[in-house]
Amino acid sequence: MKKGIHPELFEITATCTCGATFTTRSTAKGIKATLCSACHPFYTGDQKFVDTAGRIEKFQAKYKKFDKKAKK
Predict the structure, then answer these.
(1) Does residue 22 sit in helix, strand or coil?
(2) Is residue 15 exposed (0-12), middle (13-18) or buried (19+ Cβ within 10 Å)?
(3) Suppose 38 and one of 9, 20, 62, 72 were both cysteines; which one would form an S-S bond, judging by CB atoms 3.0 to 4.6 Å apart?
(4) Dmax of the chain from CA atoms?
(5) What per-residue confidence (pLDDT) applies to 54?
(6) Regarding beta strands 31-33 and 10-16, do their DSSP bridges make them parallel or antiparallel, or are they unpaired?
(7) What is the pLDDT of residue 48?
């Protein structure tokens, strides 16, 4: 390998918002993830709803007057 052209590699601890951590190597100084295999619904089998603020209901209420199916 040529010297001086490759980025420096660090051994870091990656953290998830759920609190899970693991050690890996990266060119970045640190990694913060929002999902990992410990909390992702695909791996856990649990379904999480991200709509905690009722955004879907707010949207439906706001645009209900434009719904063509509701008028019939």
Answers:
(1) strand
(2) middle
(3) 20
(4) 72
(5) 76
(6) parallel
(7) 63
Domain housing 49: 10-71
Best CA proximity match to 50, nearest among 60, 59, 61, 41:
41
CA-nearest of 30, 1, 32 to 16 is 32
Q: How many domains does the chain have?
A: 1
- For residues 65 and 42, what is the distance between their CA atoms, to the nearest angstrom? 37
Residue 27 contacts residue 7 (beta carbons within 8 Å): yes
Query: Would residue 24 count as lying in a domain?
Result: yes
21-26 sheet: strands from edge to edge? 21-26, 10-16, 31-33
Residue 17 predicted with pLDDT over 80 = yes
At CA 63, angle to CA 67 and CA 60, rounded to 5? Answer: 95
Is 63 part of a structural domain of the chain? yes
